[in-house]
Each structure stands twice: as structure tokens, then as C-alpha cells.
Amino acid sequence: MMPPAARLCSAATVVFVLGLVACTDAGVEQAQHVARQTGERVAVGLGNAKDRVDAVSGDVRSAAKDAGRQINEAAAAEVAVDPDVAATLSRGAEASIACPTPERCTIAAAYADRLRANPAFLSSQARVVPHQRDGRTIGVQLSDVQPLPGHMGFRERDVIVSVNGLRVQSLQSAPQLYLQLRSARRFTVVYERGSERRTCTIDVV
After folding, report:
1. How far is 46 from 34, CA to CA, in rounded Å?
2. Does the reported pTM lie above 0.85?
3. pLDDT per 10-residue tile (average), the chain, 205 residues
């Protein structure tokens, strides 16, 4: 039968790996030294891994922004608006939209129905690009704002955050928004202008 001391020394490899005990005082010191070195290597490795993750995250955010811009440009290029229809709807906007305050607008029901029947015209009324803050998409930013949204008080660089509580984050969210809002008679639009968050309620009457 192996003496206790011999059994202890034969377990040296286990002791070494776990860094818990050793056969001699010198072994304890060596194990502690190895443990410190291992801890330092692990810390360096974790730091390097975090740097790589941060770099990849930045690349992903950049790629997402580029993809959103490309989708927007492709969609805009594919929209074909009948010039006569566009002219008629543009002329009708001023007479059919009333905004007594910046927070409230009304749209004549007949005009709203014509807009719903001409999604290409609606798509041509502004360009939208996903807008990010602190690496997170918070809405879509408007540019090339045409008369229709202009009559409702929207301006260049406004960021649309939500419509009737539904988040607006990209062109990909447009089909879902359309399906859920196509029969709505009231639209509550939350948007940001600079550092100020605003709400506009648009009623179809």
C-alpha cells in the first residue's frame, strides 16, 4: 500500500492544475506563481477578445447602416409614380389637410382613401434612413420632404419614432405598419426634432 506522503506526491499533476496544494513549500510557491501567470494570461486573453468583439460590433453597425441606405435607394429607384396622379394628389393636399396646431391635424376621408390607393405616391413623399443613437436604431430620419408631409408639419431631419405605438425602425417595418394601420382613422406619430420629442395626432374625418 502506498504511504500517505507518496500518495500526496503522486497527485502532483492534479495539485498543479488546480493550484490548491503541493508536496512541498517550494511546490506551493511554484503553484502560486503558475496560477498568477495563468490569471494574467487569461486577463490578457479576455481583453483581446473584448477588443475583437467591439471591433466586430462596430463593423456590424456600419454594415447595417449601409444596408439600410442601399435598401432605401433601391426602393426609391423602383417606385414609379404616375405624373398625373401625383399632380392631382399634390394639389389636393392643401385643401384636404388642416393642422390647427402642430400637435393635431385632420385629413379628409376621401383624400386619405386616395392616398391609401396610391402607395407609390406616398413612398415618394420623403426618403427615410434608419437613425441610430448609441449604436441602437431609434427610428427613421426624413429627408427630401415633399408637400404632403410638409402640410402636416414634418420637416427635414425629423426622426419618426413610432406610429400608434408601433416602432418605426427601417423600411422592413413598413409592411407590418401598413397591415396594422391601413384601416386606422387616427394616427399618433411620435417623432424627434433635434433634442425634443414631439407627438402629432392625425385624424381621418
Report:
1. 18
2. no
3. 44 33 42 62 67 61 55 52 89 93 96 90 90 93 93 95 88 69 90 96 96
